[in-house]
Design a protein that fits this description.
Layout (H helix, E strand, L loop, with lengths): L5 H20 L10 E8 L5 E8 L3 H13 L1 H11 L7 E6 L2 H26 L3
Parallel strand pairs: 2-3
Antiparallel strand pairs: 1-2
Helix pairs in contact: 1-3
């Protein structure tokens, strides 16, 4: 199976959906923050490994504890994934903290701040 094939895209989508459902409703670890979401999933073409990018809405401590909780529950999550999805191999999951959402929010704040400063400068000088 090639990396960008239709089958691989469907497998990625199904693993993404089920993994998000498992994290949301099946895992009871108190370290896992309630505002945790699966951003994207990339299953290897041989179905042996899977990278799951996880986003956590919270401070750095919440993010680190959530990733630690997910890594400790990795075997349990994998067994639930095997029960819910019938695949030849159940991939070994590697959780990766995705900070792209937080980065986007910080960039938006910086852009808004620059726009406010620019507007204030135009008001002071009387420019349009």
């Amino acid at each position: 199976m090639r990396k960008n094939s239709v089958k691989n895209t469907r497998v990625n989508g199904e693993v993404h959906r089920v993994l998000a459902e498992i994290i949301r409703s099946e895992i009871k670890d108190p370290r896992i923050h309630p505002m945790t979401s699966v951003v994207t999933v990339e299953v290897a073409p041989d179905l042996k490994t899977c990278k799951a990018w996880i986003s956590v809405l919270g401070d750095e401590e919440a993010q680190n504890s959530t990733i630690a909780g997910l890594r400790s529950a990795e075997g349990y999550i994998r067994s639930l994934l095997a029960k819910k999805i019938n695949m030849r191999n159940t991939p070994e999951i590697k959780f990766i903290l995705d900070q792209s959402i937080a980065y986007g929010v910080s960039m938006t704040k910086k852009i808004d701040e620059i726009n406010r400063e620019d507007d204030a400068r135009h008001v002071e000088t009387g420019e349009d």
